[in-house]
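Page header: ASSEMBLY MODEL / two components / 892 residues total.
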Amino acid sequence: MITALIIVLVAIGSVVFHLMSPWWWTEIASNWGFIDTTIIITFWVTGIVYTAILLFVGYCIWKFRFQEGRKVEYEPENPKLEWWLTALTSIGVVIMLAPGLIAWKQFITVPADAAEFEVLGQQWQWNFRLPGKDGVLGKSDNRNITAENPFGIDPKDPNGKDDLLIEADDLHLPIDKPVKVLLRSVDVLHDFYVPQFRGKMDIIPGMVTYFWFTPIRTGNFEILCAELCGVGHHAMRGNVIVDNQSSYDTWLNEQQTFEQSMAQFETGNSIGKTAGLASKQVPDVTPQKVSAQ
Amino acid sequence: MSDITQDDVGYVAPAEVDDQDLYHPKSWITKYVFCQDAKVIAIQYSATATAIGLVALVLSWLMRLQLGFPDSFSFIEPSDYYQFITAHGMIMVIYLLTALFLGGFGNYMIPLMVGARDMAFPYVNMVSYWVYLTAVLVLIASFYVPGGPTGAGWTLYPPQAILSGTPGSDGGIVLMLISLALFIVGFTMGGLNYVVTVLQSRTRGMTLMRMPLTIWGIFTATILALLAFPALLVGAVMMLFDRLLGTSFFMPNIVEFGEHLSYGGGSPILFQHLFWFFGHPEVYIVALPAFGIVSDLISVHARRHIFGYRLMVWAIVIIGALSFIVWAHHMYVSGMNPWFGFFFATTTLIIAIPTALKVYNWTLTLWRGNIRLTVPMLFAIGFIITFVNGGITGLFLGNVAVDVPLSDTMFVVAHFHMVMGVAPMLVVFGGIYHWYPLITGRMLDETLGKFHFWVTFLGAYLIYFPMHYLGFVGVPRRYFELGDTQVFDSSVGDLNAFISIVTWIVGFAQIVFLYNMARSYFKGKEAGQNPWGACSLEWQTPQVPPGHGNWGKELPLVYRWAYDYGVPGAAHDFVPQNMAPNDVPMAEKGRESSRSRKA
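Prediction written out in full:
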């Protein structure tokens, strides 16, 4: 009796918690509202099934509780019922899978007019590279990385000269313009994740991964690393600031190009740069090996 | 259904092979230490798994200290925290659950339930345990090497697993990989044994479609493990080479803290494919034995046959087969070719169908049953609820686009703990309460058992159900602390503190369970023969607990399936598998003629 009641309360409690809980997703700031919709559809389908199963179990436990001599039903199989349940479950699966696959198709189809920029992940900070005036990112490779060329841009590639470099600083994006995020890592796996944008993608050394989105509201959004990348993983933060076009242009004009930074390095103006990326904003976590030595 | 029910009882095929003589222990050492009796090996496996499992329990307390109260415990450094979560995950999945279900339940139940005197290869079986123990000792040793155990997360993703930014990249990761390789070697010996025993050592009359679902679950899971673990083995060996010999299987060109490493040309994603080609079947290596055992618990304690036995068997087999073509759903945001997403999302959601049918059949077994709310039954019901809960959140994560925002958040942590942590552990507990009387001859204390159940079940639900919502908020997993952040408001911290408190309570309830096991061994109520009134063979042995060789002089003959509960016309509410049709006591004529099954 009590057991049945508790099971019913678990069912009701779960639904109430879902409806009343203050913990829900952040206000969306990208075009991926359809993913949220798919989640809602999935909630409905699975929520109904879950509640129904719990209530059925609760009912059975109460209705068919042990009584000496009670005759149980002897019916090892019921193919008709089993087929019905298979069919209904399959329909439920299709209802969830179809919007999921549609959303995925959108997610992997980058619009032709998406502006590219690069995220460079590194233990444990975020760096960004914008293509500059020519609209093309210069070729890059980890093998080119030196203290003065922390992004590993190919110095011979003319497209790289005007690339804008943002080291361990905030990234700005213009509102309502689709962007393709190219993801590159210097060392280990990272994952570029901004909760409000919904999208995320792992960053893998040795290859360039990507995803795309369109920012739909201005504001300051925190970047979290979502793939374990060592002791500083939790402290690997950054900011994306979504601006309207005019503030974005102002910000863009203040950024330094690859060519400028190389020139600056050569004339020794920028002492802060000489140690390269590693010296900047590394969170206060010492790697094991370093501390052991 | 002619081959599973009473319609076709009576015929028993002749034996193909004569009864074989067993190895008989000659000394205390060969009886209790280097023992070849599967029942003793089962206890050795279970005890070792429980011991290392307690380490994982303590680690979970420590990590919850940090997560619940991030500013209060200065002795926990980030590197400690990452070592805790890594060791906790690895121990729970491999060294506890896999070892307990296959090495523990498998060893004890397979020979008894199929009517064999022992495993097919008792010596190999014994070696299997000692190699497993060695693997556990190597794992423990990794806690004591300079730099400590690896903190790479239980997935051990390279490159970070073997680079200096990750704790334990000196000796810890090396010992971890060696321990895994040893575990796989040991498991392969045991696993071949389980498969051969089920296929070759069944007693006369025990057709495959008369086997209890426990055996079907363990049998299928073992086949999965034999096919899946080699992928992990090669992954582990290649990573060892990368770490020790400087090869670059998984290592591309890397600049670590401004320094160029000598690696180049390898693929980190290759490791992920190998890992999850093992890792996803691993979920079912844990789940299928749980499915099987819980089916038997529900049937015995609801005093009704399992509903849709053949569908249950085929569902186990189909789930097992499908589990090999869904692995990359762990990698939707890994940067693999995005077109894989369509395929793996579809296969993943298809696997939900046979799984859902199993759930329906468990609940339909309760329908018009005569349900005894014994402690094993409570755990079985707890399993249904937590498994359904964890299963439906799998439909979120498996559905590629939905996975994008949820991947690598606490939603994932909540999902897999519910579905392959809590649910299978509830079955382990249910199984222990159910079979303890067989193994020791004494019952476990029921009051303590009910206390254990309610605290564990409700506590685990309170831990993991709200945790999903942290994932919706966007809280990433594997974060030492959330720190200063604008994304999450303080209520996230409050929920984390709440979860931590419940974690300690649930953890302490397990100590009550251990106490119950120890106390009942000496003071428990005498169980007698077949205290639950079960049909399956393990309860029909001439001695309880079963002696060496299990069956006395004659092997049992099997006449029927393992679920003849509530047979119309029979005098008792169960008919054991080894009872010949002519021996079944019938109710008196008057009652029999008036029996109407749908009444």
